[in-house]
Specification:
56% of the residues lie in helices and 0% in strands. With 135 residues, it is mostly helical. Helix 1 packs across helix 4.
Length: 135
């Protein structure tokens, strides 16, 4: 649902945001192309560092993996659990954790469908979603 909220907020705060000198404007579908290349470089480095950390937490080192089992996960690793829970929201019970994981995945899938609808609508007529809601 973050993607969907991003569409709406990005269009609503147009021209008033401190980000990128408030120069990004128009329908949300055009916003990514307006972001400066330096931002993409920094974002790529940050994502690479986060993925490297995740790989060291979840996967067995390549030199310790049998040839027949590439991409072997650690026995102690539960996919999706990177140990980051500063607010203590993770359920202690494994069954509750897996149920919460499933709910989050379903929520993400629903958000992707909504975002796809927003993308399609903006591609059709070039108007922002907020414009459609105000009409």
């Amino acid at each position: 649902n973050d993607q969907v909220v991003g569409f709406l907020v990005g269009e609503k705060v147009e021209g008033s945001s401190f980000l990128f000198d408030a120069q990004i404007s128009g329908p949300a579908i055009t916003h990514l192309a307006q972001v400066p290349p330096v931002f993409w470089a920094l974002l790529t480095i940050a994502i690479g560092a986060a993925e490297q950390k995740r790989a060291t937490i979840g996967w067995v080192e390549p030199e310790n993996v049998p040839v027949a089992k590439p991409g072997l996960l650690r026995d102690s690793y539960i996919p999706g659990d990177l140990g980051f829970d500063p607010l203590g929201l993770k359920p202690a019970d494994d069954d509750e954790f897996f149920a919460l994981q499933t709910k989050e995945l379903q929520n993400g899938r629903l958000a992707m469908l909504a975002a796809a609808g927003f993308l399609a609508q903006e591609l059709v007529d070039g108007k922002g979603i907020i414009e459609h809601l105000q009409a």
